[in-house]
Specification:
The chain has 386 residues and is α+β, with helices and mostly antiparallel strands. It contains 12 helices and 17 strands. The strands form 3 sheets. Strands 9, 10, 11, 12, 13, 14, 15, 16 and 17 form a 9-stranded antiparallel sheet that branches. The protein has a 4-stranded parallel sheet with strand order 3-2-1-4, sandwiched between helices. Strand 11 and strand 12 form a beta hairpin. Helix 1 crosses helix 10, helix 2 packs parallel to helix 3 and helix 6 packs across helix 7.
């Protein structure tokens, strides 16, 4: 049965994704309750209540769920015990099982591989690995990237290794990651980085459950030092590649029984292989552009999906490019000239209400144009004007 407007939505996490989800929920007529360790989190300004609690505290999660008709999350570092506590009082969507699957990079890769989804070469590597094991891995992979199995985002908790550095360099990289077990992924020659966003809801019917799935068009993305810098929707890519990425995304979402949103990051290699890089069961930075590009934004779609409302159309009305704004812009002698960027027709600004720090996402620019290439050119010019 659908959870209708007038009910309250609980969100675990009060960052910018929680803030924008809360704004979409409010537009649809829902109340919003947030749980976050920071009482002044980005979402606090648009919430009915902020429950100040660590993400691993069952008592806080239970309190959030007690006053909510449904609970979702905008961050992946919620402890299983907290999710279990929330689920005693309200449905949690996407499910705790989905979050558990993606929280461990090794578990995620193995799950994908077992079900026939394409992933690049990888191996688990223990923090206490022997030099001989590392040398063998480097001979097989040449260049590779170590990633902490849990936590880390925007390029954090990662380190590159290569055969030139040998076992000594790899051991130093392992130590730099805090001495934890990692997943080692071979570095591939990439042609493009892409992403797909899938929304899925379920509805009880006589004799069982029916589902509805909507897939957003494929975004093309560019990163700098592991942080998303630019993205455009739709990406100007081979239509056959786009269809394959969307089909893979839908199949993955259905295989995990998703209710909510799932972002799938893909690598397209120079040899034209489409490989799954990473899964995120929440709104995604590369789909902020849906706010001006699509009939339905990713944030409204999340609210619809977790509340059991019919999903919105995902058609692209106007190609849109995104440029992330990092806190570095605010740390100089003068504030960024946002007015100069907004003087360009078709440029829009979103700020997250966060304190600037180096490397921290503070907001983004969106640029709307007749073609994806024109939108990218416009958003680059807008950011350069800052």
């Amino acid at each position: 049965m659908a959870i209708l407007p007038g009910a309250s939505l609980g969100i675990l996490g009060g960052g910018q994704l929680g803030r924008m989800t809360a704004m979409a929920a409010r537009s649809l007529g829902y109340g919003v309750r947030i749980l976050d360790p920071d009482p002044r989190c980005a979402a606090s300004a648009v919430a009915d209540e902020v429950i100040v609690s660590p993400f691993d505290a069952p008592a806080g999660a239970a309190r959030l769920a007690e006053g909510s008709a449904v609970v979702t999350y905008e961050i992946e570092k919620i402890a299983p015990e907290a999710l279990a506590a929330a689920e005693r009082f309200a449905p949690v969507r996407p499910s705790p099982a989905v979050l558990a699957l993606v929280q461990d990079r090794l578990t995620q890769k193995e799950w994908l591989l077992e079900r026939g989804f394409p992933v690049g070469p990888f191996r688990p590597l223990a923090a206490a690995a022997e030099p001989s094991e590392i040398e063998q891995l480097l001979r097989a992979f040449g260049r590779a990237r170590l990633k902490a199995r849990r936590g880390g985002y925007d390029g954090r908790s990662q380190a590159r290794i290569d055969a030139a550095g040998g076992a000594a360099g790899a051991l130093a990289a392992l130590r730099s990651l805090g001495g934890q077990d990692v997943i080692c992924e071979q570095e591939l020659a990439l042609s493009r980085e892409l992403s797909v966003l899938v929304a899925r809801r379920e509805e009880g019917v006589a004799g069982g459950v029916t589902s509805e799935v909507k897939v957003f068009p494929v975004a093309e993305n560019w990163h700098e030092e592991g942080i998303l810098s630019l993205s455009v929707l739709p990406g100007e890519i081979d239509p056959a590649v786009a269809r394959a990425a969307q089909s893979l995304g839908q199949r993955i979402a259905e295989a995990m029984g998703l209710v909510g949103l799932l972002a799938i990051e893909f690598f397209l290699t120079e040899s034209h292989e489409l490989l799954v890089n990473e899964l995120s069961p929440r709104p995604h930075n590369t789909f902020h552009s849906t706010e001006t590009a699509c009939l339905t934004s990713q944030f409204e779609q999340l609210v619809r999906a977790v509340c059991g409302l019919p999903l919105g159309a995902t058609d692209v009305l106007r190609p849109t490019a995104l440029a992330n704004l990092l806190g570095d812009l605010w740390l100089g002698a003068a504030s960024p000239r946002l007015d100069r960027a907004l003087a360009l027709p078709g440029v829009y600004l979103t700020l997250y209400g966060k304190e600037p720090r180096r490397g921290r996402k503070i907001g983004h620019l969106l640029a709307v144009a007749a073609t994806p290439a024109d939108a990218l050119e416009l958003v680059r010019e807008a950011r350069a004007r800052l």
